[in-house]
Every structure is written in C-alpha cells, then in structure tokens.
Design goal:
Elements: H1 11-16, H2 20-49, H3 53-58, E1 61-64, E2 80-85, H4 91-101, E3 107-111, E4 129-133, E5 153-155, E6 175-177, E7 197-199, E8 219-221, E9 242-244, E10 264-266, E11 286-288, E12 308-310, E13 330-332, E14 352-354, E15 374-376, E16 396-398, H5 407-413, E17 418-420
Parallel strand pairs: 2-3, 3-4, 4-5, 5-6, 6-7, 7-8, 8-9, 9-10, 10-11, 11-12, 12-13, 13-14, 14-15, 15-16, 16-17
Antiparallel strand pairs: 1-2
Transmembrane segments: 24-44
Keywords: Leucine-rich repeat, Membrane, Repeat, Transmembrane, Transmembrane helix
InterPro entries: Leu-rich_rpt, Leu-rich_rpt_4, LRR_dom_sf, SDS22/Internalin_LRR
C-alpha cells in the first residue's frame, strides 16, 4: 500500500495553500522593472540636459548660490544653476561655456562681475538665463539682451552702459540695477510692469515719468541722482515700500501722500523742510532725514512702527514727538541743537542712541533704557554719568570730549562695556 498521502482533487484548495509571495511575485517584478526604467530615464535625461559643471569649472566658473529676484539668497533648488566667474575669465572662455549651458532645462544665474567681458553676443543662445550680473565690467552695449525674455534680474552696476533701449521688450524683468552708470533716459522701462526693484542711484536720470505705470514696484533707489527734482510721477506707485531719495534735489514729498504702505524713506542731504505727508504712512519703520532742512518732526507722532530715525545734522531742537514711539530701536540726533531728551524715558526698545555733539547735559532719562547697547555722548556737556551704571547691556559707550566724572567707577560697574574715554 502506498504511503504517499492522497492529494486533493480540488485545485482551488491547493492554490489557497500556496505561499503569498508566489502569487505576488509577477506584480513585484513588473513594478521593479517599471521603477528601474524610470530611474534610467531620469539618469539619461539628467546626463543629457544638466550642464557639465566640471567643464565649466575648468573654464573659470565657480558654482554659487542661487538668489531671489531682490538679490537675497534662495533655498537650494535643483532647477537652478548659479555660476560666478573668476576675475580672470576671458570672452573666449565665456563663448566656450555656452555649449554646456544652452540646452539646459535649469534656470541659469550668471555672475560675470569684475571680469573684463565687454561683448555679450555669446549669451544670445541662453534661453534659460534668469539672472545676469555685469557689475564692474567694461560692457557698454547691451543689444544682445533684447530677446532674453527669460531674464528676471539684471545688474549693470558700474558699467559703461548709457543706452538701455534693448530692455524695452523684457517684460519679465523683476529687478534692475543701473547704479553708478551714465543712464539718463528711462523710456525703455515704461512697459516693464513686472518690475519690483529698481536701482537708479548715482545715475544721470532727471525725468521719472516713464516709471508712473509700474504697479508692482516695491523698491526704488534714487540716492545720488542729483538731477532729480520732481517726483510727481511716483504718486501712483502705491506698492512702493522703500524709497531712497538721498542727495537729490527734492524739496517736497507731497506727491507721496497716497503711498500708505511705505516702510523705509530716505531723504538725507536734501533741501526738504516739510515732512507732514508721512502722517499717512502708518507702516513706516525707517526714516532718514540726515542733513536735510527739517526742523519740525511732529509728523512722526503716530508712527508706532518706526524703529529707525536719523535726524543728524538737521535743524531739530525738540524731540517731544517721540514720546510714544515705543518701537524705536535706533535714534541718531548727532549734530543737532537738542538739549532735552526726557521724551526718551519710556522708549524701552532703544538699542542705539547717538547724541554726539548735541547740547544734552542731563541724561537721567536714560536710566530705565535697559536694552540700550550703544550710546554715543562724545563732545556733549554731560558730566554726571552715574545713571549709566545700571545699563549692563551696554556694549559700547563713547565719552570723549565730555567732562564726565567717575569714569573709573563706571568701568567697574560695566566690565563688559567698551568705554571710549
């Protein structure tokens, strides 16, 4: 008699007893094959379309950090390649790099600053050029850029450029720096409605009318553009948050009355006297009036977000308007005729106070300003400084030119403070 146990005549019963892995194997193999194909495709695609970074390095390029449109560093992004040229880079090396870059599907940020590159024609083939920095180069002709519609950031600081007509079709441009160039005509910017940042410092610009229809402009720098006298064209730029008018010929800012979102306003070394219009700028955080003709600051009373105020070399004598500005962190009153600083006694957020060459004699009101880190009292009539012994957060205290008494005792009380005496 056979000792082999009889097998079941029901095939379904036998299948149900089969291990699970046997039934799952065909599906697992199929999935693995698909995954492998995807990986191979990605590797192959990457090898075809990613620039040869080793070759670019041999040509004189260094891998850098990608940036946002305003120039700040952006988070690492595999879709972006930032390259910085060595100062010795030549035009022929730039031309040799183009074949490695032109077929890339990554956006390219190219920094050619401080090289001797003066011909931009090789760049015409870069369809994915997102940012171009030409700071300090001898470039004067930018016609090669006229069809670079991918360009979002362009820096022409300290170049020989005068004519920017080539930019008129670059409607995707978000940031443009023309600082310290001989540019005077801005007509090419009329239709660049996506512009966010525009730097025109130390240019020959006079007429600002081409800027009046740039609805997204947030930062405009005109400092040192000494031909600027009329800012009426800026009155409709309601997105403006930062405006630099330092060292211009502006004597009125009445045109800015609708700019309620303004956060930083720079008016140093201008003939400006009246600042009443800032009453309508509740978000203002920085106000610089250094060297202006301003003598009345009552307009700042309601600016509860103001954290930086520069009044140095103005005609201001009274600072009573500052009493309730509890967010104020930095205050510069140097070279003014201010005598009384009692208005500061409750400004607990103050970190820097400059009273250099003022008429302040009594500093008792500083006793409770325990967050104060920098205090400049040089060339003032201050004598009694005992009140400062409790300001243990002071990092720097400047007393030269005063008749301060008991300085040695103060040094003992503030061992971590650098005292210049």
């Amino acid at each position: 008699m056979s000792e082999t146990p009889p097998s079941s005549t029901n095939p379904n019963i036998e299948d149900s007893r089969s291990p699970t892995w046997r039934r799952a194997t065909p599906w697992a193999i199929g999935a693995a094959v698909v995954l492998l194909l995807i990986i191979l495709f990605a590797v192959f695609s990457s090898s075809r379309r990613s620039p040869d970074e080793r070759a670019l390095g041999e040509l004189g390029f260094i891998k850098a950090t990608c940036s946002n449109s305003d120039g700040s560093a952006a988070p690492p992004d595999s879709a972006c390649l930032a390259l910085r040229a060595k100062p010795t880079l030549t035009a022929s090396e730039v031309a040799a790099a183009i074949p490695h870059l032109k077929d890339s599907d990554r956006k390219i940020e190219l920094n050619l600053a401080n090289t001797q590159i003066d011909n931009l024609d090789p760049l015409k083939e870069l369809d994915t050029l997102d940012s171009l920095d030409l700071t300090g180069t001898p470039v004067w002709n930018i016609d090669a850029l006229k069809d670079m519609h991918s360009l979002k950031r362009l820096v022409l600081h300290r170049t020989e450029v005068e004519n920017i007509a080539a930019l008129k079709g670059l409607t995707g441009l978000q940031s443009l720096t023309l600082w310290d160039t001989r540019v005077s005509n801005l007509d090419a910017l009329k239709n660049l409605t996506d512009l966010r940042q525009l730097d025109l410092r130390d240019t020959q610009v006079r007429d600002l009318d081409p800027l009046e229809d740039l609805p997204h402009l947030e930062t405009l720098k005109l400092g040192g553009a000494r031909n600027v006298r009329d800012i009426d064209a800026l009155g409709q730029l309601t997105a403006l948050k930062t405006l630099d008018l330092n060292e211009t010929q502006i004597d009125s800012i009445a045109a800015l009355k609708k700019l309620r979102d303004m956060q930083a306003l720079f008016l140093a070394n201008t003939p400006l006297r009246d600042i009443d219009v800032i009453k309508g700028m509740p978000s203002l955080k920085t106000l610089v009036l250094d060297g202006s003709k301003v003598d009345d600051i009552d307009a700042v009373r309601g600016l509860r977000q103001l954290d930086t105020l520069v009044l140095a070399r103005t005609q201001v004598t009274s600072i009573d308007a500052l009493k309730e500005l509890t967010a104020l962190q930095r205050l510069n009153l140097a070279d003014t005729r201010v005598e009384n600083i009692d208005a500061l006694k409750d400004l607990k957020s103050l970190r820097m106070l400059n009273l250099f060459r003022t008429r302040v004699r009594n500093i008792d009101s500083l006793k409770s300003l325990t967050n104060l880190q920098e205090l400049y009292l040089a060339n003032t009539p201050v004598e009694d400084i005992d009140v400062l012994k409790g300001l243990t957060g002071l990092r720097e205290l400047v007393l030269y030119g005063t008749k301060a008494r008991n300085v040695d005792e103060l040094k003992a009380a503030l061992p971590k403070t650098r005292i210049v005496w």
